[in-house]
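Hey, I'm writing a tutorial for new members on how sequence and structure tokens pair up, and I'd like a real worked example in the thread rather than a made-up one. If someone can provide the structure for the chain below, I'll link this post from the tutorial.
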Amino acid sequence: MRVTAAIEGRGLLFGYGAVPVLDGLDVEVSRGQLVVLTGPNGSGKSTLIRLVVGLLSPDAGQILVLGRPASDPGVRRSIGYAPQGSPGRMVLPVSVTEVVASGLVTGWRGGRQQGDVGTALDAVGMTELGAECVFELSGGQQQRTVIARALVGDRPVLILDEPTTGIDRAFRPHLVQELRRRADAGAAVVVVSHDPDDFHDVCDRILFMEDGRVRDVAHDEFHTLEEAGS
């Protein structure tokens, strides 16, 4: 019997006006995998991620998450999503804990809900800053807050867009190992990154996007492609 993929896209077409971004793209990610999605600027990485989390709809083709359309509200609640960048423009006096707790969505039956905020804060090394206002934090600390919001609730699909950008190098190995632990526990973890080296020792696959399509590459091949494009 075929096992349902965590993320499955078939024949995806998408463009902004007359500009095509995805051109018949096929992609599949299984639960238990930590996958790095990489490629040159403008290759469509963030667009693909927005299709997966239901923020965009394909012009053609189909994107499924846990066997259901990505546009299904129930599917959206099963995804932990950390978009690129930190909430730097946030000026409301909300605490780190409140931002992370907003990731505890109604209707997701994935197990523990109460107490998960503390676990998520601990996972990103922010336990001592839970009561602080987000807009008073550094950019890296704000980014960690966004990541903690994605991690809270132990959802089966985690999507993180450039999660190591702006985060100090000393903390990166801790974050990488936390994402590996989540994948080992059964989550499908997709990390968008310009440079997969942070995940070199722990990722299961590297997906390289170019010309509107995506394919698996080995680490050595990625660096060859990177050098050719530089």
